[in-house]
Design goal:
Length: about 575
């Protein structure tokens, strides 16, 4: 079967066209027809950002509005298609085909405001991406249908012969319902069944070959590769566009599991039991207790903190001989596990992550951090000593490494990350013609001293005065995340002041100052809100964000409660939030 893949794929594509099966390979009609919807409305775009620090939401400087977000006006949100993110596609494939199904690379995510979930609602699939999805779904189905044992784990029943039409319809309907996040229509069942029969009865065909091609076609359909969430007018809600129960099942699975719905969720949708806030919240409680919730949180954490950058981090081995790419991977896992523990296990004040001493390390990372050796395999929960200068989120190696340069630290990059990801400040890109960091006649100058010279240029001062002071608070840690006390032979000055007047000296005090910053709560709420809704928050979301921020604070800053509040809010259940909420 494998050696005939190229020739088989060509004939199969022609057959799909003849049968009228709208797969991505045969026809991108759905994606093309909805390009205007996918691209969204003016004001909802934004600069692509891989680190979450370019949020369009800015912080007001007025003392009367301290702690409030200033949001872009934009246009009224519209129903849209949501292209599966790379991680959403991978999780969906393995939930549908089994955890051992092979995964191949697909089209990279397009991030908006740092989040793949927002970018996925503003882009359509590229022509080159089509081939990647064909290969990825082809490899996976090739493996699954290589024998009846594998197939039986995926299908509700395995046809015993080419004439077992009842089982064929049952298997395709059950698989298609989860893949499409809704029941297949009678016409769809007929078309996929016809594809099974035509290929299965052809030369070198068989039951497994026929089923493999039918499932392959389902997985190439726009109805799988895009979450279709458009809403319908609700007479009971003054005609507001409200997501149907099946669309809510799709949204819940996408946000809480980063995957497809399970049968329980789809059964609830079939009874229109996802039409109220209480019903949605009840399902969300169940879903947050399932393994898939950890996958979804990991995707959110990776985007919010720009942890993908750790995979691209390059460090000069002559300057940082202890750093390796494997250590970088461990650092990424460390931070993911710290957040996961706070949300799902400890369930405490989320902002204790900003200056807390608890982390997760394996033997290699413990050694890198200078901690006592850990017992057992894998990552273990440990605490840094009270005397340790390493503390909180900003002391995580992943942050320090991701926002450092190959041979030196970058207070600007580190400060920009904090401003964008934790304080929701929009720092614009440098204007054209800004000179690079100037050389200095003092060979022993520290990074702080060099940046002071750079800020003397008026075109640089306005932005660097926001970013650099924060980054200086992290200077006790080099670009590879290791502790140091000297910079270029001189003692490090890690003092600074935040825009709310809070002074700090070093990373631990910076973390505490950020934890207590009045914008910390509203900013985090806005990040969760925008990622869940798949669009940038606009000024019309202000009332909803204000209410959610108040609920978050009253809960003791419990992130799991915040997720439930967002998911059950009108903003998540309707295409646009209520202006009166």
């Amino acid at each position: 079967m494998r050696r005939d893949r190229a020739r088989d794929g060509l004939s199969r594509t022609r057959l799909l066209k003849r049968l009228g099966i709208a797969t991505v390979i045969a026809s991108c009609a759905l994606g093309a027809a909805c390009t205007a919807v996918i691209n969204g409305s003016a004001g909802e775009g934004g600069n692509n950002s891989s680190n979450g620090s370019g949020n369009s939401s800015t912080v007001t400087s007025s003392s009367q509005n301290l702690g409030q977000l200033s949001l872009p006006s934009g246009d009224t949100p519209i129903g849209r298609l949501h292209k599966l993110t790379a991680s959403e596609f991978a999780n969906s494939m393995q939930d549908l085909l089994g955890s051992d199904a092979p995964l191949a690379p697909v089209e990279p995510d397009s991030e908006v405001d740092g989040f793949a979930a927002i970018g996925a609602s503003t882009v359509a699939m590229s022509p080159s991406g089509v081939g990647l999805y064909e290969t990825a779904t082809g490899n996976a189905t090739d493996y699954v249908f290589s024998d009846a044992t594998h197939a039986a784990k995926v299908l509700s029943c395995v046809p015993q012969s080419m004439t077992d039409s009842a089982c064929v319809s049952q298997a395709l309907s059950a698989f298609g319902r989860r893949a499409f996040r809704r029941p297949l229509t009678d016409d769809e069942v007929t078309r996929f069944s016809t594809l099974f029969s035509t290929i299965g009865n052809g030369a070198s065909g068989s039951v497994l070959v026929g089923m493999r091609h039918a499932i392959w076609a389902i997985l190439q359909s726009p109805s799988f590769l895009y979450r279709v969430e458009l809403g319908v007018a609700s007479a009971a809600d003054a005609g507001r566009l409200k997501y149907t129960s099946y669309e809510m099942a799709s949204r819940l699975a996408g946000v809480l599991w980063n995957s497809v719905p399970d049968d329980t969720l789809l059964d609830a949708a079939a009874q229109d039991a996802l039409s109220t806030a209480d019903a949605v919240r009840a399902q969300a409680v169940r879903m947050l207790a399932a393994p898939g919730a950890h996958h979804a949180l990991q995707a959110f954490v990776d985007d919010l903190y720009g942890l993908q950058l750790i995979d691209e981090a390059s460090k000069d081995p002559t300057v940082f001989p202890n750093y390796t790419s494997a250590i970088g991977t461990d650092m990424r896992t460390e931070l993911e596990q710290r957040v996961d523990d706070m949300v799902f296990t400890t369930k405490g004040d989320f902002f204790s992550l900003y200056d807390g001493k608890t982390t997760f390390v394996n033997s290699e990372l413990a050694n890198y951090y200078g901690l006592p050796a850990v017992t057992g395999t894998g990552f273990q929960r440990v605490n840094f000593p009270d005397s340790s200068p390493r503390a909180g989120l900003l002391g995580a190696g992943a942050i320090l490494v991701a926002y450092g340069l190959p041979q030196r630290t970058s207070p600007t990059s580190r400060g920009k990350f904090v401003d964008g990801a934790l304080l929701c400040k929009d720092i614009p890109p440098p204007p054209p013609g800004v000179p690079p960091l100037p050389a200095t006649t003092d060979a022993s100058a520290t990074m702080r001293q060099r940046m002071t010279v750079h800020r003397a240029d008026p075109s640089c001062a306005s932005c660097h005065s926001l970013m650099d002071p924060i980054g200086f608070g992290m200077e006790y840690f080099d670009s590879a995340g290791e502790y140091r006390t000297l910079d270029n032979g001189q003692p490090i000055d890690a003092t600074g002041t935040l825009d709310d007047g809070a002074a700090f000296n070093g990373l631990a005090q910076l973390g505490t100052a950020l934890r207590q910053h009045p914008i910390a709560g509203p900013c985090f709420v806005s990040k969760v809100y925008a990622s869940a809704l798949g669009r940038i928050a606009l000024d019309l979301d202000a009332a909803a964000l204000s209410a959610l921020a108040k609920q978050f604070a009253m809960s003791g800053n419990h992130a799991d409660e915040l997720l439930l509040d967002v998911i059950s809010s009108d903003s998540f259940r309707f295409v646009a939030p209520s202006q009166g909420s």
